[in-house]
Design a protein that fits this description.
Layout: H1 3-7, E1 16-20, H2 24-35, E2 39-43, H3 87-90, H4 113-126, E3 133-134, E4 137-144, E5 150-156, E6 165-170, E7 172-175, E8 182-183, E9 198-201, E10 215-219, H5 223-233, E11 238-243, E12 252-253, E13 260-264, E14 266-269, E15 274-277, E16 282-284, E17 287-290, E18 294-295, E19 308-310, E20 313-315, E21 330-332, H6 341-357, H7 365-381, H8 403-411, H9 419-434, H10 446-460
Parallel strand pairs: 1-2, 1-7, 2-3, 7-21, 9-17, 10-11, 10-17, 11-13
Antiparallel strand pairs: 4-5, 5-6, 8-18, 12-13, 14-15, 15-16, 19-20
The structure holds flavin-adenine dinucleotide (FAD).
Flavin-adenine dinucleotide binds at residues 20-26, 43-46, 51-53, 74, 76-77, 81, 83-85, 90, 138-139, 176-178, 180, 224, 300, 334, 341-342.
């Protein structure tokens, strides 16, 4: 227990807290809240914990994912997915993501997605989190009552009592519903409405077989686009990746793959199936695959506009967690992007748990709003588009320090990010930029791995 916490022991109060979502963020939030003595219930609409890491071969009826009435498939995983973060840096602090040596487990440093799900199951078992989770229960409404309690309405979407609806009140709600489910589509491409081919968002991509002998245009140069282009290259006739990047040296045929090209953005789609690019080249394409990211989406939150999503900015949120006028009763875990998701969710959860207990204080609402305004102006001054508000790190050198993570750690009296964690994650990025085809299997940061395992020893014995 930290000194700061001990000093404030007398102020600790226990709250009844609702956690929405049983993915990595919801699990670690539940753990940290219960550790603080709060009474926790986790509502999870799926029938399994793990969120994104629960692979489903199902995909949505609307392959672009824009129809609001479609049946939602939560996970965006494709069958071949391996992590793009090294396991040492990816895991929670006192429950390292190390190979277990058990049969059927994946001991690779950048393991397949099944291994991450097993890890989250191990985490839930170790800290007895399953007993807190109400599965197949979808939260449909969250609002603040006059008595400062939070009204949470939820519906059973499976089981014998399917369809039953319950209203409950809580002292606090922690939103952990993920942000990789609601597709963001490329800006309207001229001519796309009459283009005769198939359009799909990467959210609904699972396996390469449907792309056999096809000419595929992938929009975007994200990590999904990188993986999926390699996944389909063995079967597809041609793979054309388009990017906003203006680095013309990179355009043209790929140096490794015979059937892969990089182009500038799509300029127009034509009625006869052609897709033309901004450099004047064109292809006759069968499929356009949008690897264009996701939108924050909180359809169940009703705050009379206090919390809103504007151009993918969830605002206003103090340090991406607390809406000042509704804090500390409403908080968000997992909003930041371009971070070590598990690590940041853990730090945010510790902070929230301590604030709800009363041993960590938040600044006044005015001060929090002021901080947010300064943050927004800073982004504007640097020319950062609004939709990157929650992007914490840059994926190109010089990689920044772990300022946000260390600030969070300081709030709850934890140690800042370990040097090896920073080194491994930035090293992975640098390797990806230099040697993208092999970065998961060839590395030279053994010294950092040794440091990480030295640290892990205290938790593994
Ligand atoms: P999620 O895992 O999405 O969990 C949210 C949960 O909330 C889900 O279980 C969902 O069913 C539930 N839910 C949603 N709405 C409701 C509701 N109304 N009521 C009840 N329950 C609800 N991160 C890494 O660290 N390493 C990687 O290699 C990596 N690769 C990735 C690859 C892909 C393709 C994607 C999409 C993401 C990847 N990530 C990776 C990021 C990943 O999202 C995070 O690691 C992390 O799993 C996010 O956890 P979360 O709990 O915030 O969200």
């Amino acid at each position: 227990m930290s000194m700061k916490k001990r000093l404030h022991q007398s102020a600790i109060t226990s709250k009844k807290v609702c956690v929405i979502g049983g993915g990595a963020s919801g699990l670690v939030a539940a753990r940290e809240l219960r550790k603080e003595g709060h009474e926790v219930v986790v509502y999870e609409r799926g029938s399994h914990l793990g969120g994104v890491w629960v692979y489903s071969s199902d995909y949505e009826s609307d392959s672009l994912g824009v129809d609001p009435t479609r049946q939602i498939v939560h996970s965006s995983l494709y069958a071949s997915l391996r992590t793009n973060v090294a396991r040492e840096a990816m895991g929670f602090t006192d429950f390292p993501f190390v190979p277990t040596g058990k049969p059927g487990r994946d001991s690779r440093r950048f393991p397949a997605h099944q291994e991450v799900l097993r890890y989250l199951e191990d985490f839930a078992n170790k800290f007895e989190l399953n007993e807190l989770i109400r599965y197949q229960t979808e939260v449909t409404h969250v609002s603040l009552e006059e008595n400062r309690k939070w009204l949470v309405k939820h519906t059973r979407i499976g089981g014998g009592d399917k369809g039953s609806k319950v209203d409950e009140t809580f002292d606090a709600v922690v939103v952990c519903n993920g942000h990789f489910t609601e597709p963001r589509i490329a800006d309207k491409i001229p001519g796309i409405d009459l283009w005769p081919g198939k359009q799909i968002h990467s959210h609904n991509y699972r396996t390469p077989e449907p792309y056999q002998h096809k000419v595929v245009v992938l929009i975007g140069l994200s990590s999904s686009s990188f993986d999926i282009s390699r996944d389909i290259a063995g079967l597809a006739k041609e793979v054309h990746i388009t990017t906003r990047s203006e680095d013309v040296r990179r355009f043209g045929k790929h140096p490794v793959y015979d059937n892969m090209w990089l182009h500038p953005m799509v300029e127009r789609a034509h009625e006869d199936g052609r897709v033309s690019f901004q450099d004047g080249t064109e292809v006759l394409a069968d499929v356009i695959l949008h690897c264009t990211g996701y939108k924050y989406h909180f359809p169940f939150i009703h705050t009379n506009g206090v919390v809103n999503v504007d151009d993918n900015r969830v605002g206003p949120l103090y340090k991406h967690v607390f809406p000042p006028t509704l804090a500390p009763g409403l908080s968000f875990v997992g909003v930041p992007s371009f971070v070590l998701a598990f690590f940041v969710a853990e730090l945010q959860s510790k902070w929230i748990a301590g604030v709800l207990s009363g041993w960590i204080s938040l600044p006044s609402k005015e001060k929090m709003m002021e901080d947010i305004e300064v943050f927004y102006s800073g982004l504007e001054a640097k020319g950062v588009p609004k939709h990157y508000t929650h992007k914490i790190h840059d994926f190109k050198p010089p990689f920044g320090p772990f300022e946000y993570e260390d600030w969070l750690a300081m709030q709850s009296g934890c140690s800042p990010a370990e040097e090896w964690r920073k080194g491994i994650s930035f090293g992975t990025l640098a390797r990806f930029l230099r040697l993208p085809e092999t970065y998961r299997d060839v590395w030279e940061d053994e010294d950092l791995i040794v440091q990480a395992y030295d640290d892990f020893m205290q938790y593994l014995s």
